Amino acid sequence: MIETLLPYYHYFLAVHIVFVISWMAGLFYILSLFIYHTEANDKPEPEKSILQKQFVKMEATLWKIIATPAMIISVLAGASMLTLNPGLLQTDWMWVKLSFVVGLLIYHFICQNIVKQLKNNRYKLTSFQLRLWRELATIFMIAIVFVVILKNAINWIYGLIGIMGVAMAIMIAVKLYKNYRKKRGE
């Protein structure tokens, strides 16, 4: 029976990949907007008010038209793939992937909360903290791609060490960038 559903599975797979890419692009871009929005606090008036008003508009548009719809379609396409091929749920790698996906969904909804906070002029995170937060999406993306591509061939200990290494490298890069900006007087 799976052979007769296989063509449909590949359509859902294609849709899933396209919308995961869109979702990740939306997450990466929204965090950049959060950073710039937060840094607009340091600008003099009227520039500060103009920028913040524009960032609120851009964040709302990106969130409502790109990031959230892409997330929903990604999840629906993924669920459809699991429905068409339930044997995937018998594999360890799929459960690891789904765990990372749950983490990414939590990340998405925390970002949604940040959109609302910034709209109401509440700045709970600094631009440096937001830069670190942005890199968490990168770590989720890398983990999911490696799990899906390597499947059972992955040694989970080495994979975990690798992800931690990437996370540390990203944190060091963000810190170096902060120091670089500080030296330039930004």
UniProtKB/TrEMBL annotation:
Which cofactor does the UniProt annotation name? Answer: heme b
Where does the record say this protein resides?
Answer: Cell membrane
| Membrane topology (UniProt) | Multi-pass membrane protein
Keyword set for this entry? Cell membrane, Heme, Iron, Membrane, Metal-binding, Oxidoreductase, Transmembrane, Transmembrane helix
Q: Which EC main class describes this enzyme?
A: oxidoreductase
GO-annotated molecular function: metal ion binding; protoporphyrinogen oxidase activity
Give me the reactions it catalyses: protoporphyrinogen IX + 3 A = protoporphyrin IX + 3 AH2
Q: By its UniProt entry, which InterPro entries does this protein fall under?
A: HemJ-like
Keyword tRNA-binding among record annotations? no
Return any one Pfam family short name: UPF0093
| Record: residues binding heme | 16, 97
What GO terms fall under cellular component here?
plasma membrane
User: Which E.C. number(s) belong to this protein?
Assistant: 1.3.99.-
Annotated membrane-spanning segments are: 12-36, 62-82, 94-111, 132-150, 156-177
Domain of life, source organism = Bacteria
Q: How is the cofactor bound?
A: Binds 1 heme b (iron(II)-protoporphyrin IX) group per subunit.
- Report the pathway entry: Porphyrin-containing compound metabolism; protoporphyrin-IX biosynthesis; protoporphyrin-IX from protoporphyrinogen-IX: step 1/1
For biological process, the GO terms are: protoporphyrinogen IX biosynthetic process
Q: Which PANTHER family has this protein been placed in?
A: PROTOPORPHYRINOGEN IX OXIDASE, UPF0093 MEMBRANE PROTEIN SLR1790
**Member of which family?**
Belongs to the HemJ family.
Assembly: Homodimer.
What does it do? Catalyzes the oxidation of protoporphyrinogen IX to protoporphyrin IX.
Protein name per UniProt = Protoporphyrinogen IX oxidase
Source organism (scientific name) = Pedobacter zeae
Taxon lineage: Bacteria, Pseudomonadati, Bacteroidota, Sphingobacteriia, Sphingobacteriales
